[in-house]
Amino acid sequence: MMLRLNGVRKYFGRGTINEVLALDGVTLDIEKGEFVCVIGSNGAGKSTLMNSIAGTFFPDEGSVVLQDNAITNWPEHKRAKFIGRVFQDPLSGTSANMTIEENMAIAMLRGKRRGLSRGVKPAHRELFQNRLKKLELGLENRLHDRVGLLSGGQRQALTMLMATLVRPDILLLDEHTAALDPKTAELILSLTRELVEELSLTTLMITHNMHHALAFGSRVIMMHRGRVIFDVRGEKVKSLTVDTLLESFHSVGIAEFSDRMLLV
Ligand SMILES: Nc1ncnc2c1ncn2[C@@H]1O[C@H](COP(=O)(O)OP(=O)(O)OP(=O)(O)O)[C@@H](O)[C@H]1O
Ligand SMILES: [Mg+2]
User: Fold this and answer.
1) Ligand 1, from 8, 42, 49: best to mutate by most atoms within 8 Å of Cβ?
2) What is the pLDDT of residues 242-256, one digit of tens each?
3) Strand order, beta sheet including 83-86
4) How many Cα atoms sit within 13 Å of 17 on the Cβ side?
5) What is the spatial distance between Cα 101 and Cα 99, in angstroms, rounded to a whole number?
6) How far apart, in Å, are the Cα atoms of 152 and each of 88, 107, 137, 148, 159?
7) Is the distance from the beta carbon of residue 155 to the nearest atom of ligand 1 less than 6 Å?
8) CA 24, 29, 33, 34 torsion: positive or negative?
9) 11 pocket-lining for ligand 1 (C-beta < 6 Å)
10) Using CA atoms, how far apart are residues 60 and 58, in angstroms rounded to an integer?
């Protein structure tokens, strides 16, 4: 068992007229090496689920266990050592005013105390170049370029490398291709697959694209109103199609899908 959420409940604006129960007692076990795709309509609680794993906030009830550590009350920075994250916005994972190698040097420090050694070690530089070559975007020759000069797709590719430069116990991807054009999205997805396989990562990927969920997930879960209402893994995933998925949701009375989820 890599990750266990037990009865995680999270309110926003509790006690106000805007109260939202974003997670309604989520219990979820994720095994080492699983690739879990999370689908669900807008506001279903997908990002909140991920935030509760990353420690962006503490749950109101329930517990989170990563490996053998009860991390429920650990602050975000303490968990960062074990968690790699990539968000939707390709600009959010990197610092525009720093060079590629400076950004990567910071990623190398994940979970360590910062500021002890400034500058980029030659051994690290070689590692960075080797990792960048893998992207086949020519970035290995641009170590001293400011990241602000890169395209969105190049930046997201770099963010993926940075999130996995120090191998995380779990990789969290929150619609990390949703802001990219289709071709670039495919590139980032195949990079995702390569990195996950190469490093045998345990992965949680939120996507609005059901085709991607079925193609990438060794397990597919659907969230609805703060709960996990559908959870399929292994061979069963392979037998699913987008149509059968939709049918099964309709049959349990869920017809509220965002247009984005169907426009794939
Ligand atoms: N920081 C916050 N403050 C107040 N409400 C929040 C906050 N974060 C999320 N919510 C609310 O919690 C609910 C779940 O939101 P969440 O972002 O987890 O949904 P999601 O499934 O990721 O949706 P989307 O597909 O739109 O990204 C929504 O009603 C949302 O408005
Ligand atoms: Mg979200």
Assistant:
1) 42
2) 988 888 777 766 766
3) 83-86, 170-174, 202-206, 35-39, 219-224, 227-233
4) 0
5) 5
6) 11, 19, 13, 9, 10
7) no
8) negative
9) no
10) 7
How close is the Cα of 143 to the center of ligand 1, in Å? 37
CA of 52 to the centre of ligand 2 (A): 13
Q: In what order do the strands lie in the sheet with 69-70?
A: 20-30, 3-12, 61-66, 69-70
End-to-end CA distance of the chain: 33
CA-CA distance, 53 to 10, in Å (whole number)?
Answer: 12
pLDDT in tens, 101-128: 999 999 998 877 665 566 788 889 999 9
**pLDDT tens digits, 19-70:** 999 999 999 999 999 999 999 989 999 999 999 999 999 999 999 999 989 9
Q: Find out whether the beta carbon of 42 lies less than 6 Å from any atom of ligand 1.
A: yes
Q: What is the mean pLDDT of the chain?
A: 92
Q: Are 137 and 159 in contact (CB under 8 A)?
A: no
How far apart, in whole angstroms, are the C-alpha atoms of residue 222 and residue 84?
Answer: 22
- CATH topology for 3-95+151-262 is Rossmann fold (3.40.50)
pTM (predicted TM-score): 0.94
Question: Would you kindly state where each structural domain of the chain is located, as residue ranges?
Answer: 3-95+151-262
Q: How far apart are CA 30 and CA 171, in angstroms?
A: 12
The ligand 1 atom at the shortest distance from the C-alpha of residue 57 is: 1
